[in-house]
Design a protein that fits this description.
The protein is mainly α. It has helices at about 5-35, 40-50, 55-65, 70-80, 105-125, 130-155; strands spanning about 85-90, 90-100. Strand 1 and strand 2 (about 90-100) form a beta hairpin. The longest helix is centred in the first third of the chain and has 32 residues, at about 5-35. It is globular and about 60 Å long.
Length: about 170
């Protein structure tokens, strides 16, 4: 059985590794975005939205925690570069749906194939059970990050509220 001190140290090491991984991912995506005259926020918005059916600017704002006006500017940049199109919803002509064109996938295929090969070589060192554990941990960490982003967004909307949403007394 692992000692409490060793477990605490491993947790600290894991958190440090995840922070470094996130920083490296941000830098990678910024480098990729710059190839298209975009910024990393634009590209990550596109990535977050890729699996959303009937995506609207409001839904993208909800997914990202960004304001609708900021999302409009992101969508304008993505549309100018040919990465998204805005289309009227056939079921409700008042609604505008954002559709990814697939252009970013096509233009980045070679870069991500090289990255996948590098990461694949690392993953090849682990057995099926280890990979399943890593995948489960990653999914739970992503879900926690998604929930925490929502919490921070709500706090941003009401910065003077406490954690329970009540106005702070001051």
């Amino acid at each position: 059985m692992m000692s409490e001190r060793r477990r605490a140290r491993q947790r600290e090491d894991l958190l440090a590794m995840m922070r470094e991984n996130a920083s490296r991912a941000v830098m990678l995506h910024q480098t990729i975005a710059e190839r298209f005259g975009l910024n990393s926020t634009d590209i990550k918005c596109l990535d977050l939205a890729r699996d959303e059916p009937a995506l609207t600017a409001g839904r993208l704002a909800e997914l990202t925690g960004m304001s609708t006006s900021a999302i409009t500017a992101v969508l304008d940049r993505l549309e100018r570069r040919g990465f998204v199109e805005r289309r009227r919803d056939p079921a409700d002509r008042r609604k505008v749906i954002v559709v990814a064109t697939g252009e970013h996938v096509r233009r980045n295929a070679e870069v991500f194939a090289r990255l996948a090969a590098e990461i694949g070589a690392v993953l090849d060192d682990y057995d099926e059970e280890q990979l399943a554990t890593f995948l489960a941990i990653g999914r739970r960490v992503n879900a926690a990050a998604r929930a925490f982003t929502g919490t921070l967004t709500r706090e941003k909307d009401h910065p003077d509220d406490d954690a329970a949403g009540r106005p702070r007394r001051g």
